Amino acid sequence: LIDLDELMKKDEPPFTFPKTLEEFEYAFNEYGQLRHIKTGEPFVFNAREDLHRWNQKRYEALGEIITQYVYELLEKKCNMTKEILPVDATEDEPTGFIYLSPDALSNPSKLLVLIQGSGVVRAGQWARRLIINQDLNSGTQIPFIERAMQEGYGVMVLNPNENYLEVEKPTKSPLPSPTETSDEPAEKRERKDDKEGKKKKEFYEKYRNPQRETETERILIRENGSSEEHVLYVWDHFVSKAAAKNVFIMAHSYGGLSFVELMNQRELEVKNKVCAVALTDSAHNIWLQETTKSTQDWMQEHCRNWVSSPEPLDIPLEPMMPDCPRVSAGTERHELTSWMSFDSIFRFFSEFHAKEGEEAEETSNSVTTRSGSHKNKHQDL
Fold first, then answer.
1. Could you give the CA distance from residue 48 to residue 208 in angstroms, rounded to a whole number?
2. Shortest CA distance to 331 belongs to which of 323, 321, 320, 342?
3. Is the CB of residue 131 less than 8 Å from the CB of residue 64?
4. Of 96, 39, 27, 119, which Cα lies nearest the Cα of 65?
5. CB-based burial of residue 341 (10 Å sphere; 0-12 exposed, 13-18 middle, 19+ buried)?
6. Distance between CA atoms of 340 and 138, rounded to whole angstroms?
7. Which residue, of 212, 222, 304, 380, has the fewest CB within 10 Å?
């Protein structure tokens, strides 16, 4: 039984959550699946049947641990380094970050840029739900990073949801209550008892439905206060300065919308530097985002959108807008579209890279021919 009087005396929430996977008694097995250390069972959301909000807070606490775990994988397993944003940040302002492979800026050939969707996911993640309930391969960007590195790409992992620093609002001191004498009227004592009963009831509700204990406010990260701002900032300060002749972008869900916004802001730069774009269940809308006809034409040639569908993988689907071809991701689950399209996306990129190489060779031969022709004409004069 819950002793509310005892809990209220402590003046602290009765719900504290572990800070590490070990304290949660969970670990990832050899298949990248999250399992209970003792029972080997998958994660159980409803740890307490009658306390849904408590279960939700516990799940969110685990999610924060997962975020740090994935950062460690990026750094230790993928040998990526953290780059602080803004690049000229002062010591006292909030900052975000992205991850770069060792050759992200120096690779002369290929660069892959990964952009996730919106929500709680941070750098290196596609979907927290998949990481917790399925495995690391389907829910993180690690397989994409490793495959890209094996195929000679430099890699940039964006962090479009890291937009602010959350700080506690200063608490206001309560007004001192008047001194009450022991011979107070019965009516006043009843009101006091009612007040105590109400306080106890509120505390019990807080126990059943834990919420943030203190009021907070958000301080936006300069020039990175939204996904769209973040993608634009990383383009201006990193992607546009990278040595790679061919940039490839993969964007999931809201990341697709942020990419299209980038095109609206830097159309010529994107067209000159980006070779191909793979979208997965993209949330972009060329009408609402007011893209130009030239952007739509470019997307038709250089983009492909793998969308959730009951059709087999890569089956062409009816276009909904005159922007980029839509094909099936081979799944009806939105969060799985990136993982299910894994091999298809790298084939798509390889085809474009091969095509770019052929075109570059043809251009080089054409220039050589013209040069030789001009030289011969000059000698004939």
1. 10
2. 342
3. no
4. 27
5. buried
6. 8
7. 380
- The encoded tokens of residue 312 equal 């087999």
| Number of neighbours of residue 214 by Cβ within 10 angstroms | 9
| Main-chain dihedrals φ then ψ at residue 96, nearest 5 degrees | -120, -165
Q: Which long-range contacts (CB under 8 A, 24 or more apart) does 78-85 make?
A: 78/142, 78/145, 78/146, 78/149, 78/155, 80/145, 80/155, 80/157, 83/238, 85/221, 85/223, 85/224, 85/230, 85/233, 85/234, 85/237
Give the position of tokens 């941070």.
122
Query: What pairing do the DSSP bridges indicate for beta strands 26-28 and 96-100?
Result: unpaired
Q: What percent of the chain has pLDDT over 70?
A: 78
Please confirm whether the linkage preceding 14 is cis (ω < 30° from 0): no
For the question of residue 253 being annotated catalytic, the response is: yes
**What is the Cα–Cα distance from 204 to 277, expressed in whole angstroms?**
52
pTM here is: 0.82
Beta-strand pair 316-317/34-36: unpaired
Helix (H, G, I), strand (E, B) or coil at 189: helix
DSSP state of 235: H
CB 73 within 8 A of CB 164: no
CB of 111 closer than 8 Å to CB of 242: yes
Written as one letter, the residue type at 12 is E
Q: Which residue's structure tokens are 């959730």?
A: 308
Q: Of 195, 218, 216, 198, whose CA–CA distance to 206 is shortest? A: 198
Structural tokens at position 238: 């990193």
Q: Which residues pair with 26 in a beta bridge?
A: 36
160-187 pLDDT tens trace: 999 999 888 776 655 555 444 445 565 5
User: Looking at 138, 226, 227, 253, which residue is catalytic?
Assistant: 253
- Kindly list the strands in the beta sheet with 246-252, ordered across the sheet, starting from the edge strand earlier in the chain: 81-85, 96-100, 153-157, 110-115, 246-252, 274-280, 303-307, 326-328, 316-317
List pLDDT tens digits, range 217-257: 999 999 999 999 999 999 999 999 999 999 999 999 999 99
Task: Report the amino acid identity of residue 201.
Answer: K
